[in-house]
Protein 1
Amino acid sequence: MSKSKKKLLAWNELPIGGYITEPGNAREYRTGDWREGKKPVIKEGKCNNCLLCWIYCPEGAIEREEKGVKINYFYCKGCGICSKECPAKAIEMEEE
Ligand code: SF4
Ligand code: SF4
């Protein structure tokens, strides 16, 4: 199977220990499956583009865009750190 057509894995399909089989293979692991009930949502107009959430997110699930940031729910595990650290209170944890 070519690299670009590889099946993306859910957390419970990972090899035991989630070991690294090749450089960059953690990209295939859907850590977003770990969310339980709540997800962060960025409130338009409140974000001042300080990028603190981008720095704090342990999953690298915050993506930088030309104007602001976006959450990649494929990787976001719903820990809420971004919401807690956002100085503008622009990220709210909402029910899925
Ligand atoms: S921490 Fe808050 S204000 Fe700063 S970029 Fe993230 S969402 Fe925007
Ligand atoms: S909830 Fe946690 S994993 Fe999801 S974007 Fe925020 S800091 Fe990252």
Protein 2
Amino acid sequence: MAANTVLSVRDLRIYYFTSRGAVRAVDGVSFDVGEGDVLGVAGESGSGKSTLGFGIMGLVPPPGRIVGGSIVLDGIDLTKLSEDELRKIRWSKVSMVFQGALNVLNPVVRVGDQMAEVLVIHKGLSKDEAMKIVEEHLKLVGLPPDVARRYPHELSGGMKQRVVIAMALLLRPRLVIADEPTTALDVVIQAQIMNLLKRIREEEKVSMIFITHDLSLIAEIANKVAVMYAGKIVEMGSSDDVYSQPLHPYTQGLLNSIPSIRRRKGLSWIPGSPPDLRNPPQGCRFHPRCPYAMDICRREEPPQIDVGNSHVVSCWLYAKR
Ligand SMILES: Nc1ncnc2c1ncn2[C@@H]1O[C@H](COP(=O)(O)OP(=O)(O)OP(=O)(O)O)[C@@H](O)[C@H]1O
Ligand code: SF4
Ligand SMILES: [Mg+2]
């Protein structure tokens, strides 16, 4: 682990124990996020991106559970903490802009009061002190101070998303997880929110995990990228390396599909669909859809291969055998 590592995840496994078997949503995931890093996490629907975010927040919903691995944030393994201890860290050290977050605001409480409550509870500030900080944060995300007195239904989708981002930053966390923060928004507002996140990254020195199905958004904001497929990271490296030299056939497929997904059309061009995570394919989980699949791919899981400059890929094509 490097000296400036904020988050270090090792061999993380998160399963949902359903009546029809265990869904292995996150299945042996490892990565680091350094100070000021923005790690983009990409992958198709159902690949485990949100579950990974919930795991780091200590908020995996039942019937889900962390079944193995570690999540070390600033030297503390979050998987070992009690719920009380986690509550202190959540929002103050790590926060999350949830997928579909536009609906998380309480409709009957004014925006400013909802935000202030976070500061009153976590920091013990008076209401007046909290309101000052709320107004500063509204300004930070480009909203006028009078938004504090409005109810959520009086805001547009883009304004609500700015409020949710402001809330995630209120306690100055070390790490913000943004899960599809622009997906529900139209293209113009999406561009504005991307610009806001880029500005926050530069001005606030907060580390970020930016989750999306859209690799072209990651190229805009992230310096590192992890590509997930069926609960595993199949390729990871600096954005420059992964975009200029994608190695995994799945990453290559995702990148080839970018012109057609620019308007959120999905990634359906890759033939086939992601596997059932209760019973994933043996060997390489991508083999039923991979144009290069070999015999060994159907039998044995590919090792993770470091091709240099921390660019790693899990694929038999790159293994020395
Ligand atoms: N509460 C749950 N109970 C059972 N299975 C679940 C639950 N939540 C998620 N899953 C399963 O876990 C897997 C990963 O889901 P997750 O929501 O993490 O994917 P995702 O990559 O965020 O997808 P999307 O891009 O659609 O948001 C999927 O197979 C999903 O069906
Ligand atoms: S390990 Fe085999 S099946 Fe999997 S991506 Fe590589 S070549 Fe394709
Ligand atoms: Mg998701």
Protein 3
Amino acid sequence: MVNLTIDKKKVQAEEGSTILKAAQSNGIEIPTLCYHDELTTSGACRLCSVEIKKGERTRIVTSCIYQVEKGLIVNTQSERVMNVRRLVLQLLMARCPESEIIRELAEKVGVKPQPRFKPDEDKGECILCRQCVEVCEEVVEVSAIGFSYRGADKAVGTPFVEPSRACIGCGACAYVCPTGHIKMEESDSGKERVIWDKTFKMVACKVCGRYFAPQEQLEYIGKKTGVPLSKLYTCVNCR
Ligand code: SF4
């Protein structure tokens, strides 16, 4: 175990774990938007920046990727940290002015709704955190979405912004999206689901009749696991 100090509290963390994890397991809250336990950590949003002190030297690091070290002194609330957090939130608000979660976080640190940067309304609420791309690639393993363009034009989506043949409509990308940028809609009857401009027919559970998953998703699971499709036509609650 590694001994370190976070916000004047002496804590222990497993070797190789990150400052963010150490803080979380000791009840110390560090805001983050792009971090997900099950996915590769990219440190894209920078919201979890903290100040560390090693010897006489202090600096700002991204807590979701920075590993704990013996004797490290971490400050999650210093004036320097708060300035970084405010700046990050100003940028995020400029990019995604309608995002409720970003507005909430901004309000907490005193960032007013009028950002210092010109709002970019074309980008929706995407903060380019990569979580959707990673969940599709690493967990679902279909890689139906990715990034296109570079710099200020960088955007997430399907290849050529067309309905993707690879997408199985599982909705995992919408589930992990921290800002609600990815829209997944289901018809009132529940028979159809639309995501990434592709419409999926939903399958009704043969026991309770509830529409619970797209046909493509069940076929994909069947192929991957070898479970006969007929056995997959029952929802999780009725299995
Ligand atoms: S809905 Fe499509 S793009 Fe999203 S995670 Fe599932 S397969 Fe990937």
Protein 4
Amino acid sequence: MNDRRLFIKKSALTLMTLSMPMVLSCKTGAAAKMNPKKPTKAIVFWYSQTGNTERAGRLIAETLKNHDLEVVAGEYREIDRESVADADLVIAGSPVYYYDVPANFKRWLHALPNIEGIPCAAYVTFGGTGGNQHNTACTLLELLADKGGAPAGMETFGNMSTFAITWSSGNVNRVLKYKHLPDKNAYDKMRDFASLILNRVHEGRNFEIDKEIDFRELIKATPSIWSTKLCITHHTIDKKKCIECGTCTKKCPVDAIDLSKHHVDTDRCIACLGCVNNCPAQAVDMAFMGKEIYGYNEFVRRNNIQIRLPKELSLKPSAL
Ligand SMILES: Cc1cc2nc3c(=O)[nH]c(=O)nc-3n(C[C@H](O)[C@H](O)[C@H](O)COP(=O)(O)O)c2cc1C
């Protein structure tokens, strides 16, 4: 038994060691050329389950407004897809989920209209380290470039992870290590990103998408989601605790929850944890390998964490 375990461990390590140095530089093919331009209308849209990507998107939008641009900003489900082609700067934001851009957001981006030659930029928010963040930002920018957008830049912004399984499995300190984020430096990085993109657009300077292929890029999305799904041993809505607020159904990006029956379609579920992370009544019953999971909002409350806002988004004196 021990020999078998050792063999599996060794094989996994060998695979990782073989793929880690295999960090290839993979430049994306010809993207649309950007012509120097003073943009006047920008659109900033994002996907966000627990607010990190939204906060970054709103700050980027405010920074662009401070540069006298007219800006439309919102969650992708609030954005009129066709209007994206009317902007002269497009910025998209996504969280990194399972080493990738979440499938629901990808689907929406695939259906964007042609944005030929319009400068575009991408940012991702992530938690912890080593989660394929750089490549995910590349993927997001590639999706815009596939629609004809001219890449102007990309960035990654760190946060406390919202992957509820980590703290529910006892690894609380691994998450709390980042509880100070976003701090002043993180917000400055977001402001600088917006200004840098604007400069590049003024100068007509294309950005080259340079993806690194490592083992996480190979096991991203579906394989990762499936391995999590296999370990989710229970996923229902507790009728007694449910306050029928509809937060879980609104947050679920794949319509897997039927609140009238307090039922979760677990085949449809993509394990984004949006329901458990956001339920204000802790009515989502979910277990990972038999252990009960509690969500992000509850984690923040239990640990007395204050997420500070940038001054542009808050009137409170504690803003950064
Ligand atoms: C289901 C799920 C999967 C995640 N996977 C990754 C990952 O692969 N890499 C990473 O760096 N962070 C990962 N995270 C952390 C999130 O990317 C991070 O907390 C992000 O800022 C959340 O953004 P949001 O609040 O806008 O939804 C994951 C979080 C969740 C809930």
